[in-house]
Write a structure and sequence with these properties.
Elements: H1 11-27, E1 28-29, E2 34-36, E3 44-45, H2 46-59, H3 64-77, H4 114-137, H5 146-160, H6 171-187, H7 193-216, H8 223-239, H9 243-263, H10 272-288, H11 292-312, E4 313-314, E5 319-320, H12 338-346, H13 363-369, E6 388-395, E7 409-416, E8 420-426, E9 438-443, E10 449-457, E11 470-477, E12 480-487, E13 493-500, E14 513-516, E15 519-526, E16 531-534, E17 540-547, E18 554-562
Antiparallel strand pairs: 1-2, 2-3, 4-5, 6-7, 7-8, 8-9, 9-10, 10-13, 11-12, 12-18, 13-17, 14-15, 15-18, 16-17
């Protein structure tokens, strides 16, 4: 065997691989031959296990090759081979996950958008059934209400028809197939022939099912999944000499590029979380693409994405400004790989941007995909070039909305100062709680960082859900953030400003004035009086405005005028 790959990597690539492998080694379960899920210790994770197998093959230490073979076989043991089911070809997220229902859903016979119409219809039936039954049952069970009836109905539907995200994850096809492509491309000649044959058979299932999903639009693909879909169909189309697959990939790549060209943006815009995946996949287009035209398209998209990142990036705060079309975290290093790419580009002194987080298992992929930031943009990631207001349009994807009516034109705007950033979204109709329409980031004189975001949730539930009946419109200017929230819901909803950072003090929050570390803010709110919640460490503060459905259609408006910055 020739020199092992890790010895051929650059110092920066090797740092990423070694750091990721130290983490993944600690989560390996030899008995199960899978990686334990970092966030759920009672479960294993098939996607991370595939990433670990790649890292083992890159490292090629004692026992690594054998361990990788075991992992890959175990991941494939957990692939669905159910040609008539909507989850055919994807992989179980975990062996501990319950199996989805089968035999009740001829999903290929329905038109695009069926999942949307099913959800809407179930909800309408639930409302009528709940209203009728609650009148009867409440006489016997006073605590039984309409919402309980709707929950029972939804639960029954989920036991018959496989609910996406709850019972299976369709995106595991694209994630694992992308990792397998790199493994086959780099290590296919040193893996056992029977394993390579089995991986090829697995990819036949995964890619054909991915194409079925794309053509049916039963479960719409967000940008990062769409890019992975195009890559795997292209790569395996060439590997298996499937002209129909390569033609499909070329058509999809051309359509994605045309959609991007309208505004120079993609549907998942200005997103800390998903840009990391997008950049990883576009790096795979560039590195493992099988035609010059495909690689060129990927490079155009990748460089365009870096232009947009630079537009909203602040190298002092080391973060994107917001607003975010979809994101988990406000901090770029929290649930994202963007910092990993910046470390690859900038090198020594920026290792902290690539510190381990929940995305670290992707780093072996990123190390091989590399980074391609246009040279003229590099200074914008190193030093602050002056305060500015920026604005960019994009067409979002509302994956839970009616096809043909789910690509709304949005405007992301931001004021970016040296130690303060304000972001605002207008035009969005996304029901996803990951859309953050109003954001603020700032820093105190000691370097501590803070952020604020406007989110919503049902009382007692997570903000990371789909809720209908709410529209957010926000604007951003220097030291000014405004937001209007239209609410037309049949469930109670909390509209809240969540603030994170050290040393928060609930006693310094009044309805008209918020005194936060290094930030004073005058507030004019057309809304009910807020309640204040502060966690025990004093690092997360919530200012909560409650909407009750019995109040009818309501609009809350907020004007946040920040005290002038000292910068």
């Amino acid at each position: 065997m020739t020199q092992v790959m890790i010895d051929r990597l650059t110092e920066r690539q090797r740092h990423l691989v070694e750091q990721a492998m130290a983490l993944m080694d600690s989560f390996y379960d030899a008995e199960m031959e899978l990686l334990i899920d970092e966030e759920q210790s009672d479960r294993h994770n098939t996607r991370s296990s595939a990433h670990y197998a790649l890292g083992l093959l890159i490292r090629s230490g004692e026992g690594d090759h054998e361990r990788a073979v075991g992992l890959l076989n175990k991941v494939m043991d957990l692939q669905f081979d159910c040609p008539d089911e909507i989850y055919h070809g994807t992989f179980r997220v975990s062996p501990q996950a319950a199996l989805p229902p089968a035999g009740n859903y001829n999903w290929k016979e329905f038109a695009p958008g069926f999942a949307y119409f099913l959800s809407e219809t179930t909800d309408k039936i639930g409302k009528r059934l709940g209203t009728a039954l609650s009148r009867e049952i409440s006489q016997v069970l006073p605590d039984f209400d309409e919402l309980a009836v709707r929950r029972y109905l939804q639960s029954a539907v989920d036991e018959v028809l496989p609910p996406v995200w709850k019972s299976y994850d369709p995106n595991w096809r694209e994630f694992i197939a992308s990792t397998f492509a790199v493994i086959l491309g780099e290590f296919g000649d040193v893996l056992p022939a029977e394993l390579v044959s089995r991986m090829d058979e697995s990819m036949q299932l995964a890619v054909s099912a991915s194409i079925d999903r794309r053509l049916s639009d039963a479960v719409p693909m967000n940008s990062n999944i769409e890019l992975m879909h195009i890559f795997i169909v292209h790569y395996y189309g060439h590997r298996f000499a499937r002209e129909d697959w390569t033609r499909h990939a070329d058509q999809e790549a051309a359509a994605f590029l045309a959609a991007y060209a309208e505004f120079g943006s993609i549907a998942e815009f200005n997103t800390t979380t998903y840009y990391g995946v997008d950049l990883t996949v576009l790096g795979l287009w560039r590195t493992y693409g099988c035609s010059a035209a495909f690689r060129e398209t990927g490079q155009t998209l990748e460089r365009g994405m870096w232009n947009n990142i630079a537009l909203f990036y602040n190298p002092v705060l080391e973060n994107l400004s917001g607003p975010f079309s979809r994101a988990y975290e406000m901090e770029m290093t929290g649930h994202s790989s963007i910092g990993v790419f910046l470390y690859l580009a900038l090198g020594a002194g920026y290792e902290h941007l690539a510190a381990p987080n929940c995305e670290t298992t992707h780093d072996p992929l990123i190390a091989l995909a590399g980074v391609d930031i246009p040279a003229e943009l590099m200074p914008q990631f190193v030093s602050f070039g002056g305060s500015r207001r920026v604005e960019k349009q994009f067409r979002e994807l509302c994956e839970r909305d009616k096809p043909g009516e789910n690509r709304n034109l949005c405007t992301a705007a931001a004021w970016i100062g040296e130690k303060r950033m304000i972001g605002a979204m207008s035009g969005s109709r996304n029901t996803n709680g990951q859309m953050h329409p109003a954001t603020i980031h700032w820093m105190d004189t000691g370097g501590a960082r803070y952020d604020l975001r406007l989110i919503r949730r049902e009382p007692g539930k997570s903000w990371n859900s789909h809720l209908r009946g709410m529209i957010f419109e926000a604007t951003a200017e220097k030291d000014l953030l405004t937001a209007a929230v239209r609410l037309d819901t049949d469930v109670p909803v909390e509209v809240l400003f969540e603030i994170t950072g050290p040393g928060l003090d609930a006693a310094r929050i009044t309805p008209e004035r918020w005194i936060l570390p290094a930030l004073g803010c005058s507030v004019v709110a057309a809304a009910s009086a807020p309640s204040i919640q502060l966690d025990e460490p004093g690092e997360k503060l919530e200012i909560i405005y409650l909407h009750c459905p019995e109040d009818g259609v309501q609009e809350m408006t907020f004007t946040l005028r920040l005290d002038p910055a000292s910068e």
